[in-house]
């Protein structure tokens, strides 16, 4: 269920903690890939007067047999697409990814506000579910740079749709 969470300016920075030994991947996820995808639509106006369409996002997180975390994020909107790959040496194996017990969280900061992705695992780490929350600083709209280079300012609440999550054996990044 989508909703907007107001966050203090420092909360986003706190959530950007990198993957550390204290937040190492659970051994049950070693040599497995976590796949999550969702759609995002935020009513907004661009600096050029345009309005954004729905953006689709997906992330593949691979935990190696040594517990090292690799990630690939793909975002697309219309004809524009962005792929980013991160390894364990890149600030937590995926920019802000952090394991805590049966959850994996990741933060995507905006110009103003942020997006928090939370993946929750069942007790046996055989299945997962995901939630995405858009947060904004108190009294300020969400502001972000679109994949087309235009800066957008929200004028309505975000709508997150079609969140799906799955776990596969092996390295889905190798395919």
List keywords for this structure.
mainly beta; 50% strand; 175 residues; 5-stranded mixed beta sheet
Helix and strand run:
EHEEEEEHEEEEEEE
Within the largest sheet, what's the order of strands?
A: 1-10-9-8-7
β-strand amount: over 45%
Q: Report low-confidence residues grouped into runs of 5 or more.
A: 1-22
Radius of gyration: 16 Å
Q: Please, how many helices?
A: 2
Q: Biggest sheet: strands, sense, closure?
A: 5 strands, mixed
Structural class: mainly beta
- Give the CA-CA distance, first to last residue: 32 Å
Instruction: Provide the domain count.
Output: 1
Helix content: under 10%
What is the 3D shape?
Answer: elongated
Question: Overall pLDDT, averaged?
Answer: 85
The total of beta strands comes to: 13
Structure commentary:
The longest helix has 7 residues. 7% of the residues lie in helices and 50% in strands. The N terminus is likely disordered. The strands form three sheets. A five-stranded mixed beta sheet has the order 1-10-9-8-7. The protein has one domain. The chain contains two helices and 13 strands, in the order βαβββββαβββββββ.
């Amino acid at each position: 269920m989508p909703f907007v969470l107001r966050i203090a300016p420092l909360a986003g920075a706190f959530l950007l903690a990198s993957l550390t030994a204290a937040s190492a991947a659970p051994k049950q996820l070693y040599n497995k890939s976590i796949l999550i995808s969702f759609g995002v639509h935020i009513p907004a106006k661009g600096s050029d007067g345009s309005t954004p369409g729905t953006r689709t996002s997906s992330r593949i997180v691979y935990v190696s047999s040594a517990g090292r975390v690799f990630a690939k994020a793909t975002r697309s909107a219309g004809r524009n697409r962005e792929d980013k790959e991160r390894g364990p040496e890149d600030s937590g194996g995926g920019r802000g990814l952090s394991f805590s017990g049966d959850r994996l969280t990741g933060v995507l900061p905006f110009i103003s506000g942020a997006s928090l992705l939370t993946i929750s695992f069942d007790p046996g780490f055989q299945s997962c579910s995901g939630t995405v929350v858009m947060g904004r600083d108190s009294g300020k709209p969400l502001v972000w740079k679109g994949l087309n280079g235009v800066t957008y300012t929200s004028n309505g609440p975000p709508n997150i749709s079609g969140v799906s999550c799955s776990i596969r054996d092996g390295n889905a990044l190798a395919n």
